[in-house]
Amino acid sequence: MSEQINPPQTQDHQPGRETEMHPKPEYMPRYPGSGRLADKVAIITGGDSGIGRAAAVLFAREGAQVALVYLEETEDAAITADAVKREGREALLLRGDVADKAFCEAVVGQVIENFGKLDVVVNNAAEQHPQEELGDISPEQLRETFETNFFGYVYLTQAALPYLQEGAAIINTTSITAYRGSPSLVDYASTKGAIVAFTRSLSAQLAEKNIRVNAVAPGPIWTPLIPATFPADKVAEFGASQPLKRPGQPNEVAPSYLFLACEDSSYITGQVLHPNGGEVING
């Protein structure tokens, strides 16, 4: 049995609330900004908490205005917006379900109306529901998981593309499970595999426009999705099996998004970064 890393805890609603976690995930950037996203505008789905929150605050520190798309976690979203504002940038809060194509179109419309442009799209919202047997995955669960985790990425990107100019960046959140699988998260891992293929295919389609499309495949990261997914004993030992013997913190993942969003990665497209605590992944 793995050793306890965090206190046992669960939440009964996805995608979970950061306000209810203990200890709280670490999301503040670790270093001063250097203007790498100066005057840029970014959309981040799942931007209220976890990796999305950490990326939003880091983007703001580097000079970006940020639109935070979230499902219903109003308190978490307000905390993230306040953190963005403390970095001297504007945060636009947009509540709704990315599985709704019309909502994704409305998000982009409001971003253009508010900021006048769009430079970076971070598709990050996700849900996951463990099932030990394939037959236990209901049609409703399968549909909802794909609609949030994959269809939402396509819908938002479709809505954003008419406004993205040369040099823009699209960043998709996939997962370590896309590469090594997950026996209890078959449908979730499948959506993350689809995201890898989506990233590679779209990068080829948009290369001639100099719009870069990349992805990040986090390993076990301490976010609200974890206590909202697993039983308390599994949450307590979450991340202990990784080579670094712990889960990652959101602010250890956010720099991967910054790198892919800014000009530091101007010769990188169709690729996936792997902040996963040391697990070697072929992909």
Task: Tell me what the structure shows.
This protein has eight helices and seven strands, in the order βαβαβαβαβααβααβ. By secondary structure, the protein is an alpha/beta fold. The chain has a single domain, classed as Rossmann fold, CATH 3.40.50.720. α1 (50-61) packs parallel to α2 (74-86) and α1 (50-61) crosses α8. It is globular, with a radius of gyration of 17 Å. Keywords: Oxidoreductase.
Strand order of the biggest β-sheet: 3-2-1-4-5-6-7
Low-confidence segments, given as residue ranges, are none
Distance between the termini: 29 Å
> What best-fitting shape do the alpha-carbon axes yield?
globular
Structural class: alpha/beta
Oligomer: single chain
Radius of gyration: 17 Å
Strand content: 5-15%
CATH class, named Alpha Beta
- Major pleated sheet: 7 strands, parallel
Shape-level CATH architecture: 3-Layer(aba) Sandwich
> SSE string, helix = H, strand = E?
EHEHEHEHEHHEHHE
Query: Number of helix segments?
Result: 8
Helicity, as a percent range: 25-40%
* CATH H-level superfamily title: NAD(P)-binding Rossmann-like Domain
Keywords: Oxidoreductase
Protein name: NAD(P)-dependent dehydrogenase, short-chain alcohol dehydrogenase family
Family: Belongs to the short-chain dehydrogenases/reductases (SDR) family.
Organism: Devosia lucknowensis
